[in-house]
Amino acid sequence: MTEPPGRRERKKAATRQKIADTALRLFLERGYDAVGIREVAAEADVAVTTLFSHFASKEALVFEQDEDFEQRLARAVTGRAPHEPLIPALRREIHALVRHCTADGAAPIWRMIDESPALRKYEESMRLRHAETLAAAIDADLELSRTATASRTIAKFVIDAYALAREAADPEAAVDEIFPMIEAAWEARRPSVRAWE
């Protein structure tokens, strides 16, 4: 008898979460560089191949919600109400992501990331990928009618806003300070309409 797809997906998600939680606990207890993949797999009671079926690299264990964040950014564009302006939708999503990443208990994780060249490099590549995904979502929305360069620029501004706000003393206030500048840049690239049209 085969398992229903819902149960199988739940089991996969639970295994993935268990691996990520175990890795993070070990990294925070002993230091990121001091813990190997085999140790994480053994502690999580999974095979190394199972670990790698869920996470492509050791760095990915730290950023286990990376894919979810990337999808949420794209959905902020594609899932907004008809004729809803783009920038307020992105601002709401960045506020939500910043709240998540600055919640209680997040500081030691970010300290670990800041202290590890490998994790900083991974985070940078992740941010570039998120910006490209966001730019593609903006560019695909015909209602927005901007150039690919404008879409990529705004996407990079939005991703940088997240990074700057996360590091600020008051992350929420930082988002509110940054987004009017992003909106001004977006509006500056509005296609002009000739007076006689």
TrEMBL record:
DNA-binding region: 36-55
Name of the protein in its database record: TetR/AcrR family transcriptional regulator
Domain of life: Bacteria
Pfam families, per database record: TetR_N
This protein's UniProt keywords: DNA-binding, Transcription, Transcription regulation
Sequence ranges assigned to domain HTH tetR-type in this UniProt record: 13-73
PROSITE patterns with a match to the protein in the record: HTH_TETR_2 (PS50977)
